Amino acid sequence: MDRIEQVRASLADSQTPLTITDFGAGKRTSDGVEQGESQDAIVRTLGDMTASSKPARWAYLLFRLIRQLEPESCLELGACVGISAGYQAAALELNGAGRLLSLEGAEVLAARSSQTLEELGLSDRASVRQGAFAATLPGALADLRPLDWVFVDGHHVEEATIEYTELIVPALSGEAVVVYDDINWSPGMQRAWARIEADPRFSLTVDLRTVGLAVVSGVRPTGRRNLSIPYG
Q1: Which end of the chain is less congested by CB atoms within 10 angstroms, N or C?
Q2: Helix H segments across the chain?
Q3: Which helix (H) or strand (E) holds 17?
Q4: Looking at per-residue confidence, does 220 or 185 come out higher?
């Protein structure tokens, strides 16, 4: 983890300009309404993009979950510069099993994420596939199913989140966890998370304010199936 944070610090200081085709988070207007994904080219520095990576506290949560759950077939939607993929791949490496495929829409970010994994010596545990999620997700699911772990961290729009969930759930193993980022990012994401909480295909959901966990299990918990924990 120290090595990953050293890479993050180095990238965060970079003023290297990146021309990015934005397939991802969408935008919030002044009245809080979501706009869909954009395919406009934007220019950001490498440092700017690194700042949008999951903070160490949240990346460590992903690391600990993978260490505990020991998933083998893992998928991430949204690589950015490879920091969260590094944490997840490091956990798989310490577990001694499992692989992660990270999907990234922007070509320059996919290349940077692959480089990050190479620098960390984790490219045997994780790889990056470039392209819009709508184009790459079906193939990734076909290649990886049954999936034990999914981290949804891109295109934070209500409709897209539900669409991806509908594609992902049939590809899950009988004991799987889907992690959703930014569940309170916008009113639309709050609605999407509410639908996931109500989805009977998940035996348990955990609302951590920023991140949500949705669990598939053959054993349903007694009492409440929707937990809320103020982690951050």
Answers
A1: C
A2: 2-12, 46-51, 56-69, 83-95, 107-119, 133-144, 158-168, 187-198
A3: strand 17-21
A4: 185
Question: What is d(CA 158, CA 185) in angstroms, rounded to the nearest whole number?
Answer: 10
- 3-class secondary-structure state, position 223: coil
Residues paired with 150 in a beta bridge: 75, 178
> What CATH number did the domain enclosing 112 receive?
3.40.50.150
- Tell me the pTM: 0.90
19: part of which helix (H) or strand (E)? Answer: strand 17-21
Residue 32 confidence (pLDDT) above 60: no
* Distance from chain centroid for Cα 167: 15
Q: What angle (nearest 5°) sits at the alpha carbon of residue 10, between those of residues 7 and 13? A: 145
CA distances from 71 to 40, 83, 108, 169 (A): 36, 19, 29, 16
For residues 119 and 23, which has the higher predicted lDDT (pLDDT)?
119
Q: C-alpha dihedral over 105, 109, 114, 116, to 10 degrees? A: -140
Domain count, the chain: 1
Whether 117 shows a pLDDT value over 90: the answer reads yes
Task: State the sign of the Cα–Cα–Cα–Cα dihedral 131, 137, 142, 146.
Answer: positive
Q: Domain containing 19: what range?
A: 2-228
C-alpha 197/C-alpha 42 separation (Å) is: 35
176 Cβ contact partners less than 8 Å away, ≥ 6 residues apart:
71, 146, 147, 148, 149, 150, 215, 216
Contact criterion met (CB below 8 Å) for 87 and 1: yes
| pLDDT tens digit sequence for 131-169 | 999 999 999 999 999 999 999 998 899 999 999 999 999
